[in-house]
Write a structure and sequence with these properties.
Elements (H helix, E strand, L loop, with lengths): L1 E5 L3 H10 L4 E5 L3 H9 L5 E2 L10 E4 L3 H14 L5 E4 L5 H7 L8 E7 L19 E5 L6 H11 L5 E5 L2 H30 L11 H7 L6 H10 L1 H23 L3 H11 L2 H6 L1
Parallel strand pairs: 1-2, 1-4, 2-3, 4-5, 5-6, 7-8
Antiparallel strand pairs: 6-7
Helix pairs in contact: 3-4, 6-9
């Protein structure tokens, strides 16, 4: 198949590497440096313009979420009747609402591969990024069954676990906790330590693997994450309120030397290890 990937960053580039094993990959990106790097790295066969997408069998929308919904409408206007279009954004409610009345809504699938690293751009693209990761598919009932089957067949070699959620709003609510809050925690931990470092010059010499793993996400691109956080702010604010409440409770336990409460809080939270195994 001919596959066009719009947005040649980490996710788009990594999909290009995977799909390129069996298909012809064409790239679209408004960043000239990204175009050059994608060609040099062999991520894509050719750089094309939106005018050429009517010739494609599959279109992947892998751009920041603040522009993905408008771009998807533009793409749906240009494709032929048999073309599959899917996005890979971290939020789903806005894009699903935007396309719900489009005549070619049946050609579109809202997906969210929960995979990534703290790096960005074409150089960040890697093979096996998606192996054994979850890929959420939203509102599959609004997509033509043949298009859904085409996507499932396309994704099968990536060895991902597909999870179907009927409601885009429910996706955004849940992902605010398991993904977006994690990034905010990492950003704020990094910010806090950087502020302390102004006074304590040797603090990073004491940083161990626990700090490194916790703050890893703080290296993530602000161009990617600012629009994600703003677009999902309703659910993120709710998750932050609960998180802050838990932090305040834990602070009180420490302040009151409540060793039993601290022990029980940590012990009950250890249950997360069993949850993550499922």
């Amino acid at each position: 198949m001919k596959i066009a990937i719009i947005g040649l960053g980490l996710i788009g580039g990594s999909l290009a590497l995977e799909f390129g094993k069996n298909h012809s990959i064409y790239g679209i990106d408004n960043n000239l440096e990204h175009q050059k790097k994608a060609l040099k790295l062999g991520l894509v066969k050719e750089i094309i313009s939106l005018d050429n997408i009517s010739k494609m069998d599959v279109i992947v929308i892998a751009v920041p979420v603040n522009i993905a919904h408008k771009l998807t409408l533009q793409v749906l206007d240009l494709i032929n009747e048999d073309t599959l279009v899917f996005d890979v954004g971290s939020t789903k409610e806005v894009i699903c609402t935007e396309v719900e009345n489009h005549p070619k809504r049946k050609n579109f699938i809202a997906t969210h591969p929960i995979a990534g690293t703290e790096f960005s751009g074409p150089n960040a693209a890697i093979t096996n990024l998606f192996t054994k990761k979850v890929n959420i598919i939203c509102e599959q009932n609004l997509t033509d069954k043949k298009q859904l089957e085409k996507l499932i067949t396309l994704l099968k070699p990536l060895n991902m676990r597909l999870v179907f959620i009927n409601s885009a709003a429910q996706h955004d609510k849940h992902i605010a906790y398991v993904s977006h809050l994690s990034h905010i925690s990492s950003f704020m931990l990094g910010k806090t330590v950087l502020e302390i470092e102004k006074e304590e010059k040797n603090i990073f010499n004491m940083a161990g693997s626990g700090f490194a793993s916790t703050v890893r996400l703080a290296k993530s691109s602000p161009k990617t994450w600012t629009p994600i956080l703003l677009q999902n702010k309703k659910h993120i604010i709710n998750s932050l309120d609960e998180y802050i409440s838990n932090l305040q409770d834990f602070r009180k336990q420490l302040q009151n030397n409540s060793d039993k409460e601290i022990f029980n809080t940590i012990k009950s939270t250890n249950h997360i290890s069993k949850v993550l195994k499922n």
